[in-house]
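Q&A log
Question type: sequence-to-structure
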Amino acid sequence: MDLHKNKGQVTVVIDLSFSASLDEVKEFILNEQSPFILSQSDENLLKFEWFIDEDTKTATLLEVFANAEGFEVLAGKVMGTPVNLKFRDLFAVEKMTILGEPTESLKETISVMNPTIKKYTGGINQ
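Response status: OK
Response body:
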């Protein structure tokens, strides 16, 4: 374990709401979006995980990248694709938080989502 060593990882936390049926949302996550993201990703994507609160029809999507460039490359591959457009139809983005430092060009690209960007300060990591 390392103390206060920024390894350059970027974590994206997207809080979402949805009005579609739970079955439709789960079908999309399990059989469309996750397989598609896996097919487009490389070793820089460390996590792509969904968490759903069925009662409130809210969800959190957690994405962890080895570095900012990995985030930018994957975003460039998936933005505007049919799967991405369906994601935008099914979910409303309530809040997007980026932990780490995205590239300047990616900041510009995602600025329409009004993300909160928090830079690494310190801690313990592996």
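Response note: The chain has a mean pLDDT of 95.
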